[in-house]
């Protein structure tokens, strides 16, 4: 029998099927950004822990320099796959794949770096925030300080009003959509600039709930019927270059239950609340948009009429 956490994990996507990991391995932005961040942060001889290792690819990146890598995975199918992959890759002997629950596991020794890529847009579905906060408490109780370096180091979350096309060959279906970044999406019209609603710094304690209410000034006429959620993961801070190594999740466009007609200059208030690791429907149900101030339409002023005598 599955316990309550295992049931929730299956429902929220913790047991990602083996074949789905191919999509993550094929995501060049994800792979390159994590490889670059791990190569920058992990120094020769370090001890590394990965929470939620999946195929073990991030542990493999770390093993290029680390003395030892603890790769923790809850899904028994993925544990078998990761062990198989480590056996056929260089430095795989330095990666110890452990079948354990990331909410409970602690390494047998202090580690220098913790990698946790349980990342979904807006920190939904997967349990990254809760796992890391639990880990920090338990780690300090066992080993004291300082805490390891975390990858990602921080997360920025933003939201943006959209007019989204929901016509599929004549079939109208307002449904959540995920979009690649850096690509022009003609079916999505941006109605205002995005606003940051949340910042997570893993070196500090973080709340597990997000509640936000903010205003947008609409930039063009249209129908506000969706909100785009943007999640930027700061994988590593590079102070000597005054830069960061980032990974931008796919955009997530959530439909509004009640579309709103808007005009340029209108002020719209948007609000929502949800729990980190919660379901998409929980955020969708809380999402609301209201026009606070309507733009005053411009009134055409007739051009002055010249006196008849002046026309002669």
UniProtKB/TrEMBL annotation:
Q: Which InterPro entries match?
A: Arg_MeTrfase (IPR025799), Methyltransf_25 (IPR041698), SAM-dependent_MTases_sf (IPR029063)
- Residues forming the Methyltransferase domain are 48-137
Q: Which Gene3D superfamilies match?
A: Vaccinia Virus protein VP39
- GO function term, MF aspect, one: histone methyltransferase activity
Instruction: Identify the CDD domains for this entry.
Output: AdoMet_MTases
Provide one Gene Ontology biological process annotation.
Answer: methylation
Presence of keyword Methyltransferase? yes
**SUPFAM superfamilies per the UniProt record, alphabetical:** S-adenosyl-L-methionine-dependent methyltransferases
For this UniProt record, the keywords arranged alphabetically read as follows: Methyltransferase, Transferase
Protein name listed in UniProt: Methyltransferase domain-containing protein
Which species is the source of this protein?
A: Pseudoduganella buxea
């Amino acid at each position: 029998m599955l316990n309550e956490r295992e049931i929730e994990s299956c429902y929220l996507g913790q047991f990602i099927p083996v074949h789905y990991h191919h999509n993550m391995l094929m995501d060049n932005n994800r792979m390159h950004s994590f490889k670059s961040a791990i190569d920058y942060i992990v120094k020769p001889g370090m001890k590394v822990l990965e929470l939620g290792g999946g195929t073990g690819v991030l542990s493999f990146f770390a093993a290029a320099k680390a003395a030892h890598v603890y790769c923790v995975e809850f899904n028994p199918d993925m544990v078998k796959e990761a062990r198989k992959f480590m056996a056929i890759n260089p430095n795989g002997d330095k990666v110890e794949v452990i079948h354990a629950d990331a909410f409970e596991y602690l390494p047998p020794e202090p580690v220098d770096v913790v990698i946790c890529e349980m990342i979904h847009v807006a920190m939904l579905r997967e349990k990254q925030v809760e796992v890391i906060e639990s880990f920090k408490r338990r780690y300090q109780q066992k080993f004291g300080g300082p805490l390891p370096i975390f990858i990602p180091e921080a997360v920025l979350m933003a939201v943006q009003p959209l007019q989204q096309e929901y016509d599929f060959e004549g079939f109208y279906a307002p449904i959540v959509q995920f979009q690649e970044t850096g690509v022009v999406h003609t079916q999505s019209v941006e109605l205002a600039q995005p606003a940051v609603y949340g910042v997570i710094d893993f070196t500090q304690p973080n709340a597990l709930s997000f509640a936000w209410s903010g205003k947008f000034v609409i930039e063009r006429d249209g129908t506000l019927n969706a909100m785009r959620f943007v999640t930027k993961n700061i994988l590593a801070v590079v102070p000597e270059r005054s830069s960061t190594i980032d990974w931008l999740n796919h955009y997530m466009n959530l439909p509004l239950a009640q579309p709103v007609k808007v005009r340029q200059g209108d002020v719209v208030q948007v609000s929502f609340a949800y729990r980190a690791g919660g379901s998409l429907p929980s955020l969708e149900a809380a999402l609301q948009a209201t026009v606070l101030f309507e733009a005053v339409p411009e009134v055409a002023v007739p051009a002055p009429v010249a006196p008849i005598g002046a026309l002669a």
